[in-house]
């Protein structure tokens, strides 16, 4: 099979198309013909060796969907021909948190697809059955592959822990990033009024086209007063945070009484100050949200399908353009996702 193989950490040029033997599935795995694989910022971090250094050679890519062509002997609930997407990491399945379905808190995580095992930059990949979710009929592979990494945190932030209701106001910080754009879309189709915070005037029109009712251009944490003005002094019912400490105190200054503040991104690690008396007096709820379980992914894929949500896809490219895709991402030419179609 054709696969993009990383044999040394470094720049995009280290991603090279090679011929590899087709994997065969273990008893608890399924072999997928990969139909789509998102190119994520995490892929660039893995490729560069900046954070962790998984064993090489490696086929990266964790945002994958495909068609099952073979199942291992112990797999009884999937069959060849099934269209599936995968959650992007492996868990133990046995610890306290796995047993109650909160697998993103697994105490013995086994690592990410595309790091501890072969990923989706290939024609075929073997994936544990415990990772797979059926794709609803009619939802394209290119959309389904984005369910777990791209849409899960904003979905959980807006719908599950944020519990947004039609007519409520949702503020999204870092709205022109991948998580931010998804949060705007999910909040909009959930019936909320959306206020997008972005650093760039050039992105205002794109955010409005995506469904933002208002866009505030702000390079620091001073947007809270603007949000209050736009909401008649009341503030937002939900703030979805994709930037973190760098935009404080904007998010809390934006928050209404009884508001929910959900953190899904923290870019700088800058600690923040919170006056806890305000948390009491205003009955604020503050949450953090991590990645998707299979149940989450199943719910998200149906949500994407039923609401006809259109992920922002910059372009689709063949497998041999993986290096070029990474180059474009590095040069910040990309808005939304590049999808590889092996
Ligand atoms: Zn990703
Ligand atoms: Zn576990």
Question: What's the gist of this structure?
Answer:
This protein has 342 residues and is an alpha/beta fold. 26% of the residues lie in helices and 26% in strands. The chain has 2 domains: 2-149 and 292-341, Alpha-Beta Complex (Quinone Oxidoreductase, Chain A, domain 1), CATH 3.90.180; 162-288, Medium-chain alcohol dehydrogenases, catalytic domain (Quinone Oxidoreductase, Chain A, domain 1, Alpha-Beta Complex).
Q: How would you describe this structure to a colleague?
A:
The protein has 342 residues and is of the alpha/beta class. The protein folds into two domains: 2-149 and 292-341, Quinone Oxidoreductase, Chain A, domain 1; 162-288, Medium-chain alcohol dehydrogenases, catalytic domain (Quinone Oxidoreductase, Chain A, domain 1), CATH 3.90.180. The chain has helices at 41-48, 96-99, 141-144, 147-160, 178-189, 204-210, 224-230, 250-254, 276-281, 294-306, 322-330; strands at residues 2-6, 15-19, 29-39, 63-71, 83-86, 89-90, 111-112, 124-128, 132-134, 169-172, 193-198, 214-217, 236-241, 255-263, 285-288, 313-318, 337-341. The strands form four sheets. Strands 3, 4, 5, 8, 9, 16 and 17 form a seven-stranded mixed β-sheet that branches. It has a six-stranded parallel β-sheet with strand order 12-11-10-13-14-15, sandwiched between helices. α4 packs across α5 (178-189) and α4 crosses α10. It starts with a strand and ends with a strand. The relative contact order is 0.16. It binds zinc ion (2 copies). Residues 40, 42, 62-63, 149 line the site of one zinc ion.
């Amino acid at each position: 099979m054709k696969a993009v193989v990383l044999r040394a950490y470094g720049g995009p040029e280290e991603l090279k198309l090679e011929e590899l033997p087709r994997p065969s599935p273990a008893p608890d795995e399924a072999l997928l013909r990969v139909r789509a694989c998102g190119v994520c910022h995490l892929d660039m971090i893995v490729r560069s060796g900046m954070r962790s250094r998984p064993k090489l050679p490696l086929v990266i890519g964790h945002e994958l969907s495909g068609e099952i062509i073979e199942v291992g002997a112990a797999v009884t609930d999937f069959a060849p021909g099934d269209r599936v997407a995968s959650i992007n990491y492996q868990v133990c399945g046995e610890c306290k948190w796995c047993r109650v379905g909160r697998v993103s808190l697994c105490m013995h995580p086994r690592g990410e697809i595309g790091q501890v095992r072969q990923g989706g930059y290939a024609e075929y990949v073997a994936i544990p059955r415990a990772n797979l979710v059926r794709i609803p009929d009619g939802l394209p592979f290119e959309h389904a592959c984005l369910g777990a990494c791209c849409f899960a945190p904003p979905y959980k932030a807006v719908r599950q822990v944020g519990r947004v209701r039609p007519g409520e106001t949702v503020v999204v910080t870092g709205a022109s990033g991948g998580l931010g754009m998804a949060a705007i879309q999910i909040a909009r189709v959930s019936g909320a009024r959306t206020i997008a915070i972005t650093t760039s005037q050039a992105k205002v029109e794109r955010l409005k086209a995506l469904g933002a009712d208002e866009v505030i251009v702000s390079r620091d944490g001073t947007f809270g007063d603007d949000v209050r003005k736009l909401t008649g002094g009341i503030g937002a019912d939900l703030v979805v945070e994709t930037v973190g400490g760098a935009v404080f105190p904007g998010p809390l200054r934006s928050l209404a009484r009884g508001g929910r503040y959900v953190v899904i991104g923290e870019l700088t690690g800058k600690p923040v100050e919170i006056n806890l008396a305000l948390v009491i007096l205003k009955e604020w709820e503050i949450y953090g949200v991590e990645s998707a379980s299979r149940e989450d992914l199943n719910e998200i894929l149906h949500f994407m399908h039923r609401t006809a949500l259109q992920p922002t896809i910059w372009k689709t490219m063949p497998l041999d353009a993986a290096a070029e895709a990474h180059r474009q991402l590095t040069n910040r030419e990309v808005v939304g996702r590049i999808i590889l179609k092996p």
